[in-house]
Amino acid sequence: MSRLLQLTMSTEGFVFDPTCGDCFTANPTALFILNSLREQKSSQTIVQELQRHYEVTQDEAERDILDFMNHLRTYHLV
How many helices (H) and strands (E) does the chain have? Predict the structure, then answer.
């Protein structure tokens, strides 16, 4: 999880990884998940917070997290 802690993120969604120089953009949901992961919140806590914050179902929140985690794995961030 340490690479996640090294990311530089703007509130507009610009994310920079100083370890390799990669940068990408993240939508508000992705930023929410990234910040939650950096705070070492559990998946279940993130699901509950996504449900409250974005008014989505549990299934939608779980799917968003799984999809985003797959993207993070692609970038070797988790």
Answer: 4, 3
User: Three-class SS of residue 8?
Assistant: strand
How would you classify the pairing of strands 22-25 and 14-17? Answer: antiparallel
Per-residue model confidence (pLDDT) at position 75: 81
The radius of gyration computed from the CA coordinates of the chain, to the nearest angstrom, equals 12
Contact between residue 33 and residue 68 where contact means Cβ atoms under 8 Å apart:
yes
Q: Reduced to 3 states, what is the DSSP secondary structure of residue 49?
A: helix
What is the tens place of the pLDDT at every residue in 12-70? 999 999 988 989 899 999 999 999 999 999 999 999 999 999 999 999 999 999 999 89
Label residues 16-27 b or e (16+ Cβ within 10 Å = b).
Answer: ebeeeeeeeebe
**Strand extents, DSSP E, 1-78:** 8-9, 14-17, 22-25
